Amino acid sequence: MDVVVIGAGQAGLSAAFHLRRAGLEPDRDFVVLDHAPHPGGAWQFRWPSLTYGKVHGMHALPGMELTGADPARPSSEVIGAYFDTYERTFDLRVHRPVDVTAVGEGEDGRLRVETSEGVYATRALINATGTWDRPFWPRYPGQETFRGRELHTADYPGPAEFAGKRVLVVGGGASGTQHLMEIAEVAAGTTWVTRREPVYREGPFGEEEGRAAVALVEERVRRGLPPRSVVSVTGLPLNDAIREARERGILDRLPMFDRITPTGVAWADGRTADVDVILWATGFRAAIDHLTPLRLREPGGGIRVEGTRAVRDERVHLVGYGPSASTIGANRAGRAAVSDIRRLLAREPAGVAAG
User: Fold this and answer.
1) Which of 87, 169, 172, 351 could bridge to 194 as Cys pair (CB 3.0-4.6 Å)?
2) Which strand (E) or helix (H) includes residue 20?
């Protein structure tokens, strides 16, 4: 192949669209590999109570708008159906389910992509694997003694399972607040803890604010540090639901506890909270372990990129990584990666090492 695309979420499908538009043919010049069982990227795994109306902005894929979606329908169904239609309309021929286990140096300047359906030799790689497969679980003293249930946002089933339970929600992002507000309606009690005081954002969030937020994330990636999410620098939107939850005391935040006990959590000042469930809404990390053989990581732990190109290997592009980990950013990154790769392919004939 000239190009292998890993991942068929927003960023991967955007890249595939632009490869097709550039004249490359699926299964001849490029291939899209996706480990998920169905179209929809990470959206297909979202909890049923996350309806499309609760989604914080879904930018359309290039070349096809998402119209007429029922805001009361689960976002997993709406976006799954949209991605499915998109793949078929543009004949992207996504291979699934396919697991990519490793990407390393191959022969004749090509990258060797080892997968569950065989080995690909490619002149360029677009990595669009996102973060959903790498939920971040913090570790705290005493965690192994807890007699209740622990789960992560990645496994969140919706509020019904928490009826009558005492639930501790950890995390100050959009998922944490959404979980908390849902669970509070059925739980015996809720407690909310975050590392930092939550920052609420009032007023419109326009292009200028968006660019400023993306720039902060981009700066970390340029320095080779692990990216933070765009949401982590934008704050929480102060909408009517958030205001009501604050007035009712649901969003009364406590600082992080110091240890976990058999029956709950404890703080160094002597405070304790007995809980039945700890829900970790503590985010995700980039799913890039399969790139380890290429040694792209910097001492800071991240992969340094310029635009979408890995600084340590110009054949590798990361889309949906760091500053492009939003739906609109993923679209732009897909287009930019393909533009860069076209120049690489034109410059380096097949069989000649790149770089």
Assistant:
1) 172
2) helix 10-21
Q: How many CB atoms lie within 10 A of CB 234?
A: 21
pTM of the prediction?
A: 0.84
Residue 344: in which H helix or E strand, if any? helix 327-347
Q: Say what angle helices 75-89 and 10-21 make with each other, to 10 degrees.
A: 10
Residues contacting 73, CB < 8 A, separation 6+? 51, 52
3-state secondary structure of 194: strand
DSSP string over 74-130:
BHHHHHHHHHHHHHHHTT---B-S--EEEEEE-STTPEEEEETTEEEEESEEEE---
The helix-helix angle for 174-183 and 240-247 (nearest 10°) equals 60
Containing 231, the helix (H) or strand (E) segment is helix 231-234
| Longest alpha-carbon distance in the chain | 68
Cα-Cα-Cα-Cα torsion 209, 215, 220, 222, nearest 10 degrees, comes to 170
pLDDT of 57 higher than 70? no
pLDDT tens-digit profile of 122-172?
Answer: 999 999 999 888 999 999 999 999 999 999 999 999 999 999 999 999 998
pLDDT tens digit sequence for 75-112? 999 999 999 999 999 999 999 999 999 999 999 999 99
Element (H, E) at 243: helix 240-247
Tell me which residue has tokens 């029922």: 70
Task: Report DSSP letters for 204-219, one per residue.
Answer: ---HHHHHHHHHHHHH
What are the CA-CA distances from residue 97 to residues 27, 115, 252, 320, 341 (Å)? 16, 10, 43, 20, 26
Write down the residue that tokens 């968006």 correspond to.
Answer: 210
Tokens of 188: 């015996």
Q: In what order do the strands lie in the sheet with 272-274?
A: 259-261, 264-266, 272-274
What is the DSSP track for 262-331? TTEEE-TTS-EEE-SEEEE---B----GGGGGG--B-TTSSB-EETTEETTEEEEEE-SSGGG-SHHHHH
Q: Are 169 and 192 within 8 A, CB to CB?
A: yes
**Stated length of the chain:** 355
